[in-house]
């Protein structure tokens, strides 16, 4: 069924995928592209996810990061005002800027570690000298995150477009959840991402797909039901992930 109000479009996609996904990551750029006030749309989208899929995690991909005097206000905004269950943060400012986000063990904090975009290499791949010798900066960040993880609520954002680096970080942080964007529209290989990103039980890899689902197109000549197309794309991705896990002997019984 064609949808006129962009917020209805979001609601329809959420309704159509509620039983298929474990986390939603609302996308402000998407709302703005549809001509909406992004913040109002975000509010409406969060409200709707809470009603339609109360058990899913809502992830605020805002990549916040500031000095210790202002970071608490950002953490309060993300967790208490918006009510996100988990957020992404930027660790460029070091530990004191992250500390306020880490205080509540019930809220997840994904540190952007090695991006999926080409420009991530500009800084994140630089070699740094550590007590254990020279290593890439993203590996140093992964090790540091492991040390900061006193409340057990840290995860890492690792791009799917560089599976070797993803595998490096998985071996440095064997138990950490990894949020993995870059499959679908960005061209990362799904099987490589799942196999490199999963833990030894085949879990703790959150594969992200945004445009691959929200921009899914209905079959040409068929009904113009975008929500059904999004559902189909989400189900296909879920089934592909499960098949990869099963083939690796790590399926869900
Ligand atoms: O390294 C990164 C960090 C974050 N992202 C975010 O994930 C989504 C991916 O969207 P797709 O449409 O599935 O490509 C994007 O909105 C980024 O904000 C990332 O891609 N890479």
Task: Walk me through this protein's architecture.
This is Orotidine 5'-phosphate decarboxylase. GO terms for molecular function: orotidine-5'-phosphate decarboxylase activity. The chain is of the alpha/beta class. The chain has one domain (6-247): Alpha-Beta Barrel (TIM Barrel). It has 11 helices and 9 strands. The strands form 2 sheets. It has a 7-stranded parallel sheet. It has a two-stranded antiparallel ribbon with strand order 5-6. Strand 2, helix 4 and strand 3 (86-89) form a beta-alpha-beta unit. Helix 8 runs parallel beside helix 9 (190-197). The radius of gyration is 19 Å and the shape is globular. The mean pLDDT is 94. The protein binds ligand LLZGTKA7. The ligand O=c1ccn([C@@H]2O[C@H](COP(=O)(O)O)[C@@H](O)[C@H]2O)c(=O)[nH]1 binds at residues 27, 61, 112, 115-117, 157, 159, 181-182, 184-186, 208-212.
